[in-house]
Design brief:
The complex is a heterodimer of chains A (883) and B (112). Chain A has 883 residues and is of the alpha+beta class. In chain A, strands 4, 5, 6, 7, 8, 9 and 11 form a 7-stranded mixed beta sheet that branches. A 6-stranded mixed beta barrel of chain A has the order 17-18-23-20-22-21. In chain A, strands 1, 2, 3, 12 and 13 form a 5-stranded antiparallel beta sheet that branches. Classes of the chains: A alpha+beta (883), B alpha+beta (112).
Amino acid sequence: MGWIHRLRNAWSGSDDTFDEEARFHLEQRADEYVRAGMSADEAGREARKRFGSLTLARERTAEVDRFRWIDDFRRDLAYGLRMLWRSPGFSLLAILCLTLGIGANAAVFSWIEGILLRPYPLVVDQDRLYAVVSTNRGVGSDETGMSWPDWLDLQRSSTLVESFIAEKITGTALSTGDRAERAPGSIVSANYFDALGVHPILGRAFVPGEDTGRNAHPVTVISHQVWKERFHGDPQILGKTQMLNGLPHTIIGVAPDGFYGTFVGYAFQFWVPASMQPQFHAGVYKLEDRGARWIEGFVRLKPGVTMAQAQAELSAAMARLEADFPETNRGRGIQIFPLWRTPFNGAAAMLPALGVALAVVLAVLLIACANVGNLLLVRAFARQQEMTIRLSIGAGRRRLVKQLLTEGLMLSVIAGIGGVIIATWLRDALAILTPPHNGIILRFAGALDWRVFAMSASVCLVSTLVFGLVPAFVTSDIDLADALRAQSGSVVGSRRAAWVRSTLVVVQIALSFVLLAGAGLLLKSVQAMRTVSPGFTTGGVLTTSVDAFTAGYNVARARILQDELIRRVRAIGGVQSAALSAITPFSYASVPSAQIAVDGYDPPRDQQPSADYNMVGPGYFETLGIPIISGRTFTDADDESAARVAIVDQTMAAQYWRGSDPVGSRVQMNGRWLQVVGLAKAIKTRGFLDAPTPYFYVPLRQNPTAVVGLQIRTPLAPAAIRPSLVREVHALDSNMAPGEVITMREQLERTTSSQLVALTMLIVFGGLALVLAAIGLYGVMAATVAQSARQLALRVALGADTAHVLRLVLGTGFAVTAIGLAIGLAFALGTTRLMGYLLYEVNPRDPLVFTTALVVVALSAAAACTVPAFRATRTDPLQALRG
Amino acid sequence: MLSRRKKPDALQGTLDLLVLKTLRRGPHHGYGIAADIQSISGDILRVEEGSLYPALHRMEHLGWISAEWQTTENNRRARIYKLTRAGERRLAEEQEKWAQLTKGVAKVLRFA
């Protein structure tokens, strides 16, 4: 392992050297004394005496060497800068490759930091924060929120958790001028700000007790943005009121600039204490209901407590609650997650996309490094004479190695600075891929903190070693005599160099192929999602929402308004059918879930059967085109005075009726028996990637709510129907307006943002990788032709025709490409399935995608080979032989 | 920049000269250089061993000599120093300087 020794010698200090030298010296001297007749002990002592102070000598030697190190470094730096300056084309290309590679990495690091690892600016000690969900044994991996009474009980019994931070995302309409915009906010426990370590810049945070009582404390802390934009930074803001969801709230504080709350993806604009929960949940009071699971909270563990310890303590506490409250808590457990695996906010959607992004940018960096390594190698051979001369006038080999490393380091430092600048530009690039809707701007910002800088710096260092050392090793074996004999245009070391360079290109081609294949699969996946049926018709269906609750309606008055509204909407020209529903499919709104019992179904003892449900009006199944397999749909007759009915879906029938037709039997929902009147085909309700879960429908009239979605079947475009819709709503109440009107197709596509992010990454960086790899291949081919110019010329002189020369040159390029493709293919076949749920209904080894990627890479490689090959055919034998 | 200019004392220059001259005869390790100087000078010159190694490292840095680890005949690892071409040029200069110096000193001594 000669090179390890070389490397160590090149960088290690001199102390070892000196000690070893001194030891040799003393041994020799002692030998001499022994020969003169001394005892071994005496000889050793005398030798040391004669030498004088070892420490002093060591220090003086070290000083000499230290100065030399700094001195050399400075000289290398100046020399390197001169070299970079002298070949600006090379320098620019190398720096560009590296800047792209390092910049892409820095950007992805910053996203991972800002979205997954430490997603909440200004929140202290995020390492100790964990997300909390409750689990349900009956429904497998189903995760839901926690109930407020459970939350308080856990808080009382826990010794390992420093603070329990309860919250639930919510929203309200904030009018800005004459336009109403949705603004996201949060319902939080009173300790929220204190526990997060965030202090209002004006006023106060919530105080203990403000999170108790039904609508008892109408106070709010507003965001810095709201304060600046709506209240123009009014310093007298405290004590003023703000309407939130139809109720005036007293502004008691202003959050600091840069605090966006604790929900990945959204920037919260206001916070209200948990006591105001009914006002935001259509009047349903949940603080004393152990069965109402709505809290998406966090726990902050005490310092030194591990996640496993906390999980064990909380699970034990939940088990005790299950024993104490079997009606509500049967089968209920708890699970905590590190922030980056938070299941209930944007982190869950971004995790796989960012995972792919990280793999992709590392591959791009590797390709960029291979390119720069190649370029340095080409240059190293161009500079062979210089190196040879420096060697011959006594420069140490390790000085040359150091020189090459210094040049590499300079390249990567320059590129690293450029990379961080790129990362700064790209900080908010993810937000571009997730466009604002309904006035709510999604927030997926990268964070550039010292950890990101440290990571980027280590990427710089590692890449320097990767591409700086390759030419260093190849050239440090220069044989002086050979090199001097061969003169310029030499082929010294060319075989070894060619081998190294071809290997680099093989790696590049393999990686490009993997990236392109990945991009192809994702493209197919996104296409599949665009064309797949979610189980209902999306063409010709528009969706919007009508919020009567915010406009001050109670449920009884809202029901009258809704009846009238749906009559008017159906009368609008071009409307084929229209229906109301509590939940619009594929919307973010949390789907309600109920504990159920089924006639003839005997659940296991520790299991509480439950199912998600929706409250829908007459015409819902017809409007969305959900097939009714048996029985009937809801009609106007299914009102509050009629018998309670339900329609179950196939998944639920399969699970609780074991596949037999449920029509005619009964299902119990929250303690109330319903007659099953229909069986509907199962649809996807939240996203394309939903696993089928039991789902049922109840009539809206029998389970009214003031906030509803409105689905309209019509050939009209959203913009065409909106004026009539606004007119009809205004006719009923001039203070109300319908929400954003969009096509059902768009509603569905909004749930595919993480796939889009991953796809964009793969396409952008896959393309970049291919270009870089093509540059690399071109470089190798050009150098091969240049190096074998003499040989080619001989052949031409001896009568070889163009075709022969072409074959000869292209053969090398094709061989390299073929090996690269073979390795890439093997690698891709093994790894694409790791993309997991990002691939929707796509075979991770899709032959069409793989073939396409193969052809694209092969064509690019062919293009890169062509120019040097044709140059070879035009070799002038005379000139080449003379040179 | 580290250079001889920093410590312009004549003694150091003398040590450099002696070392370079000794190495002219062939590569040698530090102990050998010290021993050669002593024996050739007929025991008149005794190299201060504590100063020898900093000087060797300094000259190596300046490119006058190069060093390599080798195994000696008694199977010990020794750092063998070798005169470079730059070192030979330097030696010629130093010798010339030394000749001038001794000539000057001799003149003064004769005159006084």
